[in-house]
Amino acid sequence: MKQVKVGIIGGGLMGRESASAFGRWFAFSDIAVQPVLLAVCDLDESVLEWYKKVNTIEQLTADYKELLQNKDIEVVYVAVPHNLHEQFYVDVLESGKDLIAEKPFGIDLFACQKIVDKIKETGRFVRCSSEFPFLPGPQRVIDYAKSGSLGKILEIKSGFHHSSDLNVDKPINWKRMIKFCGEIGVMGDLGMHAVHLPLRLGYNPISVYANLQNVVKERKNDKGELVPCDTWDNAILHTRIEKEGHVVPMALEMKRIAPSETNTWYIEIIGTKGGVRYSTKEPKTFWTFVMDGKAQKWCKEDLGFQSVLPTITGGIFEPGFPDCFMQMLGTYFAERDGTLGDRFHCATPEEALRSHQLFAAALVSSKHHQVVSLI
C-alpha cells in the first residue's frame, strides 16, 4: 500500500482512537493507502507518554507549529477545543498539509466560514470527523432512503443522546464554557452527529424553531468553587425541509442530559409507503416499515459487520465504535487517494458550514421564541 505520513494535534481521547485505528489498518482487506503515524502534539506530557508505545512515531512535541514544520507529514488530524479550531485549522492548511478535523469546524459560524474560505484558497483536501454513519445500520438507512421504498416522506427524526452531564456534581470542563465551546454549546459538541446523515440525503432545513436548555447553570471547578456553566445542555431543533414539492417536518435532537442514554445515535424516516429506523441502542438491529395489504408491519433484521470498506472481519460479527471510527478514517484516505469511488464519504466542509448556519439560526430562534428562516 502507498504510505501517507500523518500527524496528530490533540492526543487525547480521539487522538488515541486515531492511533489505534492506524495500528489496525491491516484489517482492511482492500485499500490502496496506509497512514503512518509520524508525530503527535499535546500539551500534556502524560498524554505524549502513551504514544511512546507507537513504534512509527518520530516526533512528540508540545508545540503544534513544530509538528507543522515537519516536511514529511502530509495529513494532520486535529482534535482540540472549539475555540482553537479556526487558528489551528488555518495554520495546518497554510503549512501545505491536508486535514481531517473534529466537528464543529470552528467555535461559531464566522470561524467556520473563515476555515472554509481558507480551504478553497489553499485547495487542500479536508473532511470533518463524524463516525456514526459508518456503522452498517446507517448505511442500510441510506440505501433504503434512496431506493424509493419510502414513498412520499412524512417526517424525519435524527439525534444523539447521552448522559455525560446527568451528574450535577460532575466538575466543569471546557465543553461547558462558552469561551471554549462556543455559544452554540451542545449543538457544537453533538450537532454534526445529528445532521450529517440528513444533510447527505438532501434533507436541508429551510426553517428552524429551537428549544434550548441550560439545565445545570453552575458546576465546581478544580478548586471546588462553583462557577457558571453557561452552555446549552440540550437542544431540540424543529426544522422543516422541502422534498419533492412538499414541506416535511424534521426533528433534530442533541442532548448531554438524557437519562437512560449512554451514547445513543438514532435516525428515523417515515413515508407514505414505508419507513426505516436505526438506533445504536440496538446496534445490530435494522428496522423497516412495510405495508402488506391491509397489514402495517415493522420488520426487524439483524445486521453483521459490513460497512463502506471491506475488512477481514467475518460478516456475522457485530461492529463497535472503534470499527466505525476506523471506517471513517479509511474513507478519508481512500477518497483523498481517489480510490473511494461513489461510496459514502466523510462529512464535508460544506456540510459543516450548513450545520453552523442551522445552529446560528437556532440561537436566534431561542432568543426571540420564533421560527427563523434559513433561505
By CATH, the architecture of the largest domain is named 2-Layer Sandwich
The strand count comes to 17
Shape: globular
Spatial strand arrangement across the major sheet = 16-15-14-13-7-12-11-8-17
CATH uppermost class of the largest domain:
Alpha Beta
How much is the radius of gyration in Å?
21 Å
Work out the count of structural domains. 2
Offer a concise description of the structure:
The chain has 375 residues and is an alpha/beta fold. The protein has ten helices and 17 strands. The chain has two domains: 127 residues, NAD(P)-binding Rossmann-like Domain (Rossmann fold), CATH 3.40.50.720; 211 residues, Dihydrodipicolinate Reductase, domain 2, CATH 3.30.360.
Characteristic key phrases:
6-stranded parallel beta sheet, alpha/beta, Dihydrodipicolinate Reductase, domain 2, 375 residues, 10 helices, globular
Characterise the protein shown here:
The radius of gyration is 21 Å and the shape is globular. Helix 4 runs parallel beside helix 5 (109-122), helix 5 runs antiparallel to helix 10 and helix 8 crosses helix 10 (349-368). The chain has helices at residues 13-23, 45-50, 64-68, 85-94, 109-122, 136-146, 178-181, 186-200, 321-337, 349-368, and strands at residues 2-9, 33-41, 59-61, 75-78, 98-101, 126-128, 153-161, 205-213, 218-220, 226-228, 234-243, 246-255, 264-271, 274-279, 285-292, 295-302, 372-373. It has 10 helices and 17 strands. It has 2 domains: 2-128, Rossmann fold (3-Layer(aba) Sandwich), CATH 3.40.50; 133-317 and 348-373, Dihydrodipicolinate Reductase, domain 2 (2-Layer Sandwich). The longest helix has 20 residues, at 349-368. The strands form 3 sheets. It has a 9-stranded mixed sheet. The chain starts with a strand and ends with a strand. The mean pLDDT is 96. It is of the alpha/beta class and 375 residues long.
